[in-house]
Amino acid sequence: MRRPFIAGNWKMNKTPSEARELVGELKDMVSDVDDVDMAVCPTFVAVPAVVDELEDSDIMVGAQNMYWKDSGSFTGEVSPQMLTDLDLEHVIIGHSERREYFHETDREVNMKVRKALEKGLKPIVCVGESLEEREEGRTEEKVAFQVWSALSGVADEDIPEVTIAYEPLWAIGTGESASPEEAASTIDSIRDIVEDISPGAEEKIRIQYGGSVKPHNIEDFISRTTIDGALVGGASLTAESFAGVIKKCQ
Ligand code: PEP
Asked: Which residues are catalytic (predicted)?
């Protein structure tokens, strides 16, 4: 049985003090939740304040990105050891905004996934089709390629440590979400790919839906057995709405 996993991606929002305030409120609101895995992914600079504030909470902390090298002359980058040193457990890899605005390729996503796992971080790998690809009927082909690329060279025993976030690009931050049927069908196709890569892992790997998830629609997604939770953007930016999403998954 896979535990539901709700992760909040704050993107480039919240100063360190605002971040501390948000999780200070959130941890009280979800203190009675014990059957859902919860994580927030602040900006790098807000991570120490959030880790400190959540010391006595079950809410985990993740990063939104990392580099695939251990250290060195890579101005502006952050290594996986810097994240594990702060006790982070998760790292989002290959978010569509990184792919689009920072030209992150499938090869780079794969290198980051492998390095994260090597260092004991659990990647949340984002995949999803554009509106154009969807209209051309190429959704499954696109996400299959992204999943194959991301998991290439990953050891069988590490695959269940990965979470895949299926996020149709046209549903991110638009207020328009995929229908639960569409999301479940694409996620089933992702499970088939995972089975081809590592038979049996499709039962263990967690696959989230992401794209305009809110307290009022999360139940439509989480009620599908193949959907294990959500990667939440906008609705993770207030304690009330993020707690609302989490509580509906109990
Ligand atoms: C995201 O950025 O991963 C996301 C799903 O955003 P939103 O929930 O705002 O659509």
From this structure: 95 (electrophile), 167 (proton acceptor)
Strand pairing partners for 7?
A: 39, 231
- What distance in angstroms lies between residue 73's CA and the mean position of ligand 1's atoms? 32
CB 20 within 8 A of CB 61: no
Whose Cα sits closest to atom 1 in ligand 1?
233
- Please give the structure tokens belonging to residue 202: 């499709």
Three-class secondary structure of residue 229 per DSSP: strand
Q: What is the pLDDT of residue 203?
A: 98
- What mean pLDDT comes out for the span 114-122? 98
233 lines ligand 1 (CB under 6 A): yes
Please state the residue numbers annotated as binding site for substrate. Answer: 9-11, 173, 212, 233-234
User: Hey, where are the domains in the chain?
Assistant: 5-247
Percent of the chain with pLDDT over 90: 97
Could you give the CA distance from residue 96 to residue 174 in angstroms, rounded to a whole number?
14
Ligand 1 and 229: CB distance under 6 A: no
Q: Of the CATH numbers 3.40.50.300, 3.40.309.10, 3.40.1550.10, 3.20.20.70, which one belongs to the domain with range 5-247? A: 3.20.20.70
Q: Is the CB of 172 under 6 A from ligand 1?
A: yes
Q: How would residue 10 be classed by pLDDT, with cut points 50, 70 and 90?
A: very high
For residue 185, give both structure tokens.
């069908």
Q: Name the residue at shortest CA distance from atom 8 of ligand 1.
A: 233
In this structure, the strands spanning 60-63 and 90-93 are: parallel
The structure tokens listed for 25 are 């409120």
Which residue has better confidence, 41 or 176? 41
**Taking Cα atoms as reference points, which of 210, 234, 245 lies closest to residue 95?**
210
Whole-prediction pTM value? 0.97
